[in-house]
Amino acid sequence: MRVLVVEDDQQTAAYVRDGLAAAGCEVDLAEDGAAGLERAREEPFDVLVVDRMLPRLDGLALVTALRRDEVQTPVLFLTAMGAIADRVEGLEGGGDDYLVKPFSMQELGARISALARRPAMRGRDAARLRSGDLTLDRLQRVARRGGRKIELLPLQFKLLEFLLLHEGDVVTRTMLLEGVWGLRFDPRTNIVETHISHLRGKIDNPGEASLIVTVRGAGYAIRAS
Question: What's the whole-number mean pLDDT along residues 38-64?
């Protein structure tokens, strides 16, 4: 997989490059928005990782220009701009995913892999995740199953979002601790199991098989039956 990282902070760029290279990606770097735009227009990449705050041309303008030129390469915004309004602006401006700094390298790698596996999405569809009849609108922050609205606490929303971003894949306990709770160590509690159980209780309809499957000895997966 070939990834272009457009990032002006050299330390962050090197960290992302080394982490993705260790996962088997071929990584190119651009240190400003204008250089990133030129590279993305002229060369084939599987995924673009773009900061929002860039010299010469900001990340949002970069992506807007690419979409105007009908360059459909999936884009993940990687930025410190984490307000809801910023996320909405980024996704509606042509981004496919949005990850806020500080971030987990494991989650970044998983999100990039997910983007590379699925067709590029545009507009509001880029902000909507789905598994079977379960949908998660990341802009409105609303979950629904069938016609039923599901009320989720903020951490439950983040947990469901993480599972849906890896729809069909097995997500380990370590991935969840790092990606959802931001923990780089195992607290040796049943925090993951407890929250998975509560989430199941909210999204599953009575009498139906759970969408969240426990994979014994490995972790969890969300799979439509």
Answer: 94
Interstrand relation of 47-50 and 26-30 (parallel, antiparallel or unpaired): unpaired
- Domains and their CATH numbers in the chain: 1-121 (3.40.50.2300), 127-225 (1.10.10.10)
The per-residue DSSP string of 138-196 comes to: TTTTEEEETTEEE---HHHHHHHHHHHHTTTS-B-HHHHHHHTS--SS--SSSHHHHHH
pLDDT of residue 225: 61
Distance in angstroms (rounded) separating the CA atoms of residues 144 and 200: 13
Helix (H) or strand (E) holding 114: helix 105-117
Q: Which pTM was predicted?
A: 0.56
- Paired with 215 in beta bridges are 219
